[in-house]
Amino acid sequence: MEIFERIRQQPGPLSQYAGVGEGYYLFPELEGEIGSRMRFKGREVIMWSVNNYLGLANHPEIRKADAEAAKKWGLAYPMGARLMTGETALHKKLERELAELVQKEAAAVVNYGYPGVLSSIDSLLSRRDVVVYDSNSHGCMVDGTRLHVGKRFSYKHNDIKSLEVNLERATKVVEETGGGILVITEGVFGMRGSQGILKEIVALKEKYNFRFYVDDAHGFGTLGKGGAGTGVEQGCQDGIDIYFATFAKAFAAIGGFIAGDADIIRHLQYAMRSQIHAKSLPMVYVEGNLKRLDMMRTHPEFQEKLWYNARKLQNGLRERGLNIGEPNAVVTPVFLSGTAFEASQLVMDLRENYGIFCTMVIYPVVPKDMILLRLIPTAAHTDEDIETTLEAFSSVAEKLRNKEYSDVVVNPLKES
Asked: 32-58+300-401 has which fold?
């Protein structure tokens, strides 16, 4: 079948909903300053779907630093890739400070998290190597392994026995190829709020010969002393060979970094195609992220407030009989039973009648007849935000149990 014709006849898992959900469930237009309350479709909503963990997005000192950096440098500087014309002293300063924080010899700043993860995985592996990854790994990690021309195995999510089975398989392969093994997982899984079993994986190094790569997008800034991440939280940072984190979550910014042994980081700086063939992180973000890093290290109250809010939200949901699984990070899932149609009506009810905005996840990301609502607490949320949200969730859960969403037909895209 001709390419465009196939796309038109067989839309993807998300694009199939474009006609009924675009502008509301997909590509919603949010207005107002980033914070615990924003505007959607002309109404104020309590916002549980933006990555602003430490509440830094609109902190006065952050806004001032960003504005001064933009005035000083503009958006173009430096003009070019790091390897060619994009190197600056401030890039290197940010890297030194990040490496010190996460207890690694060196760090390399990258322009975006997704291509940074994908490209670093690709640059670490040869055709003789084997990659073993958690089945629930983020798409950037999965795409990185898909670039790998050698063997790749996935293990059941956070299942140490399944990992061992696959490490044994990988060991047999590399005994024949002469390659090595790279194990990949996340520090915090961003959909269900569970920490990766990092300490257990590090312990397997006594039995198996492998290197360990952790993408800590949701752990950096939220876990560990000073926000140093999940490995520090679990006391196993030394056993993590490659540590990756993004500025897009706790820092509410753009960019990311990868840290590890100095010689390996140097290799990646010369090998990651997403960096040597793309523009260096602009100075407005370099200076802005230096300021965010300084504030994270010197203001532990941001992390403390984040966890106060997360615990208050999670405990309140449990007390109301809602199933949130067993999160041990700040990401808070709420699991409900219902169809995709019921999910759409419930979320619309939350937004239109309760002023609550959160992300909806349905099949095929979760099993059929399961609804996952993901809440992202931040340090900017207030007690009132949380109490209002808890009451709203109690109400809509009761409506769902009473089948009040099963026969409602509402078009959320209609003009109000």
From this structure: Aspartate Aminotransferase, domain 1 (3.90.1150)
